Each structure stands twice: as C-alpha cells, then as structure tokens.
Amino acid sequence: METDTEPYVRLASLRELHQVVGRLNTARSMADTLQTIADGAVAALGFELAAVNLVRADGDLLVAAVAGNERAEAAMAGRTGSRDSWDRRLSMGERWGELRFIPYTEGWVLEHDDVPQWHITGPAPRTPDEWHPMDRLYAPMYAADGELLAVLEVDKPRNGKRPGPWGCEALQLYASQAAIAISNARLRGNMQRALVRLEQEQQALRASEESFRQAFEYAPSGMAIAEVGGDNHGHLIRVNDALCRLLGRSAALLRRYSFADLVHPEDTAVLLRTSAEGGRAELRLLRRDGSYVWVSLRNSVVADATDGPQVLLTHVEDIEERKRHELALAHRASHDSLTGLPNSAELRARLGNRLCEVPLDQLGRTADASPGAPGPGAPDAFQGLGTPPPRAYDHHEHIRPPDAPGSDGKGLAVLFCDLDGFKSINDRFGHVCGDAVLVEVARRLEQGVRDNDTVARLGGDEFVVLADGLGTADASDLAVRLRSGIIPPIRVEGRSVRVGASFGISWAACGMTTEEILESADQRMYVDKRSRSHGKRRAG
C-alpha cells in the first residue's frame, strides 16, 4: 500500500500561497516589500510569527519587518544584529535544503549574542517533530549573484510541529520569490530615483540619461521601451540584452515586433486588459525556438529623454521557475503520489464540472431554450423549477444516460474498478510489492482507454474510469477489455503475482451529485463481484 509521507495540500492553500507570492511584486517601496514578505509568511506558511532581517550597507542585519505578534514587533523592530553573529547562526544550523534549523538543544550557545530575538522557554517536546519554543528556523534570501540580501526568520508553527517536506519546500519557494521581490524593489527604487531626476529641469534630465541607460542595459531582468498611442502603439523601440537572451532573439529582430505579436494566443486578452500606465500582467511570450516562457510584465509611461514624447517602459521578469513550482505543487495536490493518476478530489472536480443542477426530468424543458433572446412567454418557461437554470444560456451540454429520453444513445460512463485478490498480495509479500502492483495496474488501465478518458485512483485498490461518448454495449466492452488487461501476471521482485478486477458501471446525469454517481457505480461493482465465485474473480 502507498504510505503518505507529506501532509495533504489543499488547493485553497496553494491558491493562498500563489496570491501571497503575487502580492510581493505589488509593493511600491522596499519597506512595503519587506512588510509584505513578513505578512505573507504568517498568512500562507502556517507560522504565527515572522521577521525579516535586512542586510544593511555596513553588513549588519536590521530587523526591518515583523508580523504576527505586536509585542515581538515592539521588542525587535529597528534593532540590529552583527554580521558575525548571523554568519555563526547560519553556519551552525542544520541544513534543510536552503533553510537553516537550530534545535532548542543547541540554541543555548546563542543566548548571549547580539541578534534580536523573541523566544520563551518551555518543556521538552513530547514527540520528535514537536516544535519547541526555543527552536529557530531561518530562510536566507540571496540575490542572483549569491549576495545575502536578508534572512526570513519564522517561529511558532500553528500546528505545533516542525515543518515537513512540503512545508520546507513551500518556505524555500517563498524565500526565493521574496529575494526576487527585494532585488526588484532595489531596482525599482534605483529606477524611480532616476525617473524623478528625469522629471527635473532639462540639464538634470540630460545628466541622468547615462545612468538610465546603464540601468536599462545592464538590468538583470528584461527591459523594453515601446511607442505609446498612434498606429504603432506597443511597437518595440529599444530592448536590453537580458530580454534578448530571454526570448532568444537579437535586438534588431525584436524591434520588428510588439508584445502583441509575441504573446501566446491564449494570453492575448490578458495583455489587452493590462493598463498602459502602471499595468502588470503574467503571460507567455514566444521564443525564437517556438517555445513559450512565462513572464511578468510591468509597464510605466515615461518621457523620452531625447525627443520629449511619452514612451512605454516595460520590465519583463522571467517567472518560469515560479510557475513550474506552482504547477508542481498543484499537480501534487490533485494527483496520487504513487501512481501519478488523478486523485479522488481531482476526479470529483472533473466529474462535477460536467454536471449541472437541472434534474433529468427537466432537461427537455431547458433544452428548448434558445441561446439567443427568449421568445414570447419565455419568462414563464422555467416556473416551477425552483431556480432558473442559467446553463440554458451558456451552451452547457447536458449529460444524459444512453437510455434517457432525448439521448443519442451515448453518455458519460463511470466505471468503478476494485481489484480482486490484492489484499492477499499485501499480506503475503508486503506493501512494497503491493505498491508495485498498483503502479502496474494503473499503467495498464491508462493503456486501455482513450486519450481523452480519465483514469483516477480513489485510494487503496479502487480505481475509477470516466469515458464519454459511449453506449451501453461500448461501456460493457470497455470493462471487459480493462479486466482482460489487468489479468496477466505482474512481475515484482523476481516473483509473478496476479490480480483480478470487478467493475461496476453507472452513468453520469445532470441533476445527480458526484457522490450519487460514484455510489451507484460502487454498488454495481459489488454486484459484479458477488456474481462470480472467488476463483473466477482471481482469474478475472
């Protein structure tokens, strides 16, 4: 059997983490950025206290932001700790990836250094993973060139436990994005100061042109200047080397395009919704090799130093790595970690997305509704249904069983599969062998269905297949083929084992809940299982 080694990640938590990371790039100043980092750690990472220690110009670290505890903020904010003390802490801590953890058993040597802290004593932990009040967990934040920018310190996990693998990964991801936000805040601060100087008298404007040019040309992120207004609105006038490298195109080639020419077709609407003044969007841009890269665009309108008219200054930040982490976390939350199949929550979501609340016996009344303007008597057409069915106007394709009135003889089949003889394999050969059998069964099920069908694992040795566009005989034939694909022996650790499978088939229909549909398929599976002797079940 599969053993869960990480906490279950809810999609709501992932969305919250995504939103918090997104807010890092909306802060207008360095102070706002640092406070947003501390607030985000408390809001999304499960800690009650967070502090950001910013590296000052002299090398010492200043407690620049505290979140979660007003008394801790009053005691720590604005105080500094020497760089030597911080280097000692970061070097002596246990390495949890990029994180540094100092357990309470070792922290006594730090009680008299000059690093501001907020810790209280407490009893020894009752379990190995219990958090002690004197435990310390740090997330160093580095610039792209390896320079230490700040250290995020978190304390008092809400669940009272040391963070597990997912919690550590989430904290590392958040710290890496926070480091980018601090670097961007530095860059924005430098550029904003340059822009203020550009708005001064003409002499100061000319003097700062070289400073702006260097900030533009040597910025670590992509930069572009484009036309504003007129027939050539958005046409690229000037690009820096970082943008050329990001998109794999020369500056001369990029000056033939606008961002509208390079954006992914699915992201065109996002680009059009972006305001020209201070607008921000996350979208995909086309590389020369035909691939797309996720970027964050930030626009501001400035006056050209030479000719005077306004131009659009666009900051292009590569967020491919962050998107990849987000997709990986989302996939982990919606897919079974053993087999890689969609899990129970994802199955229910996919099935639920195909259904509406209109009962089956009412579908004939809603199907007559035109997607255009209603004709005479339309206001009374849905009286007696409880709530008006908005699906009638958004081209929802109602789901009917194959034998239902108005059906074309095909429907969305739900095949519930339970393995026969799997428990004895687990009992005789152990869970490692059992897990290998589950992985092979998942592979065989996927090979036996079409590309647009869904094979999901509910848990244990239970699987569900969603197959649309099948008739009654088609669904029965599919169950027979899948059972026949599972029967052949499976080689595991030098031995050959066999399992059979029992299938129950139900049909999805609007007006039903996902639980009702799955329960119906489950019950029919047990009818199938009881209809065959034990020996026949093992033989498939």
> What would you call the structural class?
alpha+beta
CATH topology of the largest domain: Alpha-Beta Plaits
Share of residues in helices: 25-40%
Strand order of the largest sheet: 3-2-1-7-6-5-4
Any low-confidence stretches, pLDDT <50, length ≥5?
1-7, 366-393
Integer average pLDDT: 83
Could you give the count of β-strands? Answer: 18
Strand content: 15-25%
Oligomer: single chain
Number of domains: 3
CA gyration radius, whole angstroms: 30 Å
**CATH architecture label name of the largest domain:** 2-Layer Sandwich
Main sheet overview: 7 strands, antiparallel
Tell me, briefly, the overall form: globular
Total of DSSP H or I helical runs spanning 4+ residues: 19
CATH homologous superfamily name of the largest domain? Answer: Reverse transcriptase/Diguanylate cyclase domain
Description:
This protein has helices at 11-24, 30-44, 70-76, 83-92, 165-198, 202-207, 209-217, 241-247, 251-254, 259-262, 268-273, 320-334, 344-353, 363-367, 422-429, 431-447, 472-486, 514-530, 534-538, and strands at residues 47-55, 61-67, 80-81, 94-96, 99-102, 136-142, 148-157, 222-227, 236-239, 280-286, 292-303, 310-318, 411-420, 454-459, 462-470, 490-492, 495-497, 500-507. The longest helix has 34 residues, at 165-198. A hairpin with an 8-residue loop joins β8 (222-227) and β9 (236-239). Helix content is 39%, strand content 22%. It has 540 residues and is of the alpha+beta class. α2 (30-44) runs antiparallel to α5 and α5 runs antiparallel to α7 (209-217). It is globular and about 90 Å long. Residues 1-7 and 366-393 have low confidence and may be disordered. The strands form 4 sheets. It has a 7-stranded antiparallel β-sheet. It folds into 3 domains: 11-187, GAF domain (Beta-Lactamase), CATH 3.30.450.40; 202-321, PAS domain (Beta-Lactamase, 2-Layer Sandwich); 335-367 and 391-538, Alpha-Beta Plaits (2-Layer Sandwich).
